[in-house]
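Review box. Two proteins, two foldings.
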Amino acid sequence: MSDLSSLPQGLDALETRLKQDLAWLELPAKSWIPPREADGKRVVDVVIIGGGMAGLVASGMLKRLGVANHVVLDKASAGQEGPWVTFARMRTLRSPKQLTGPAMGLPALTFRAYYEARYGNEAWVVLDRAPREIWMDYLIWYRRVLELPVCNGISVDAILPREDGMLDLVCRQRDRTEIMIARHVVLATGRDGLGGPYLPPIADDIDRNFWAHTADEIDFAALRGKRVGVVGAGASAMDNAATALEAGAARLDMFVRRKELPRINKFTGIGSQGVVHGFAGLPDEWKWRFLNYAMGQQTPPPRPSVLRVSAFPQARLHLESPISELKQIGDHLIVATPKGRYPVDFLIFGTGFKIDLTNRPELAAVAPYIRLWRDRFPTPAGMPNAELEGSPDLGDAFEFLETEPGACPALAKIHCFNFPATLSHGKLTGDIPAISEGADRLARGIVKALFVIDRERHFADLQAFDTPELLGDEWVDAETTTEKDTKLNA
């Protein structure tokens, strides 16, 4: 990761341009929310949990709309937020380089503007896709130039409803715990934000030293000279397989259930502003139909990732090879499939993530009241889908809804701005293409809720406002003037 303490001249000029753009647009808007206190401490209007891309753009949108009293909390150290320099192991992003991502409609805030400022226009022309480390550098820069209120090294252990309608957040930093009081909470917690990594049951009885999930920290250097197996062939599976091979794995076997790798990225193929803004307006059955079909077709791994693996002669792809049995024998595993039995020293599961509220202890107090799609929408005939059935049923501002009205009103103050929001709102929360549009929808919904709940105070401010625009000396009453002229002419 680059040292941004000594910025190239191009970035200095770009930042000057950005400041001018913001000034011309009168951004950020002035702070307008009346301050509140409770239990002797100031209440935070919005707490965003997660300082990755989604958390940063949510913060940027709230700031531009005048919600100054908000904070972003992330358990990682500064510069380590999100997956980009932790468990993401691809060389470049999957998304095309020209996508504007979290730029919020500001040209000087785009990745392209940042990249050209650092490396020049010619470098942009020859660039294929953004290297993930440089993308992380961009997000660090984004956070700095927008002066976003991110606090690192803080985890949220519990979100607890209060009797006054607000929320207590039990925050831990090292060995110190304190309570933060918030009016709204945004969960910008990524793909596993409402659950965790998915592992098939075959891993239940296997010693943890013999396997990892692609979201785990993995000592790839320790795999040098080893036989490595990878379950799955999605993007993460391919990138982990390539990393193991590049670290010197003696043999690598990829086990894939499908007859062939998916080749067409269906949802990306129909990407448009219609999908971005129109998906949330679809009837429920059509939302289900779109996503169930796209998920059934699956997303192909990026071509560069596949070529990165297939370049190694010791890599083998096993199609139509679901794992039927997994045994631990001495110092290695035996992977059994319909096509054969394979000894491996280490197995990596590229099996994605699952929604499981019981995996999120911070949500334990509210999880039983969160309405899921299966709680109100009958699964369409012929389209069973466990992931969709377990997706949260969200309101217009990504807020959780109650299973029973009145059971937990505080859910209206907790906003699910992470990947599981997809069925309710479309792909606005977990990927680069429409993250700004998602953050705009989120921020406007929160602003609306804050204004409505404070309406009495805003009305009192309206009544009390007494700064005159006219001073009384601009004009003279016509009748007074006429009487005066009549006396003078008499």
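Next protein.
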Amino acid sequence: MRKRLLPMLLTCLLPAVTRAQQSDSLVLRQLADEVLRNSTAYENLRVLTKTIGGRLAGSPQMPKAEQWGVNALKAAGADTVYLQECMVPHWVRGAKEEARIVSKLRDFVPPLNVLALGNSVGTGNPGITAPVLEVASFEDLEAKKDQVKGKIIFYNYHFKPEFVKTFYSYGDAVKYRGQGASRAAKYGAVAVIVRSMSHGAFNFPHTGAMAYDPAYPKIPAVAIGLQDADRLSNRLKKDNSAKIFLRTNCEMLPDTIGHNVVGEIRGSKYPDQFITVGGHLDSWDVAEGAHDDGAGCVQSIEVLRAFKAAGVKPTRTIRVVLFANEENGTRGGKKYAELAKQRNEKHILALESDAGGFTPRGFTSTMDPEKKAKMKSWRPLLEPYGLYDFNEEGGGTDIGPLHQALGTPMAELSPDSQRYFDIHHAVNDVFEAVNKRELELGAFSMAGFIYLVDLYF
């Protein structure tokens, strides 16, 4: 009898599963059509980048970007829009950096293309002239520690090309930007030059945040373009007595007030449960911050707009957050997590887009195995839109504090990464570098993912 009942039971269950999949597929198609036909993401990005531009925390552009975010969320149809205040660092670059080789060789040597690293101290107006010591790694620095005193340390650590996913190259190399100054100051260095975090073919230096170890003196730190890094290395091979003149004018001012910009669609069934989706509103001062992270901001706003326009009513509250100060302090993400914990909020998932507006491939995530398996089960629904990669661990910088504070599952849109580090933190991260179609596909990918999370998590 039991053997006869099992096939009958399966026959009863299978049509229901199929109907659910068909229903989800129809809603995903509805959201995709809305985004791909009517998206405002590209125009929102144009306004953000071309009328405001670089918007580092504490800069005059910061409050302009916050107001842009408020207006864009209201225009997208948010039920509620508000600001979350937080204190943010206020680092200023000052006058353009100068760097040149001082050599006994008589040939003409053009100036080196450098950018001060974020949070670095400056050299002061007189600048610094000192011998250069090239090192290939921290291990090489340790081996040469007796030669370091009084010198400018040149970290010539190359981005590893063998990683197919280039964020692994970045993760491998970024310690030289973050820790390089203090590691060199420990042995008496007067400044550091760091090979840019890129494997691009350009000579644009890539800035980014660094931090000081309070145990050692603060010394100036700059990034150098790849072609000039090679040129400097070759010069040192010919003339190991060559010096560098370096002048930077950056400084850290007192903290100032910034804001997370928040917009919500109220949940129809569980309004006190939250699904967060966001990107960071700040960017480095040297470019327009189009891919990093204007793209993530406009994609997150588009999620909200698409739900509203398509008439898809989430059961949980979808909260779009444009985070403050990701680049050189992560104060916005920390404040968001702090307030969520204080209010005892229930967070179902946090999703971030901060890997550029390129063609979406899937999602990285950090969550319990049961939810991970559920997420992977959505692949047949999402694969028709080019989404197939759901295996990698990960999550965004701004949602990491929420994950740590509340254990909230987190995920990040994972676009194709091959071009990202051509423009990351560099002057060429501009609106023109963003492809409209790719940007919109990423926005739909996030909307579709959020729709499924709302139903099944």
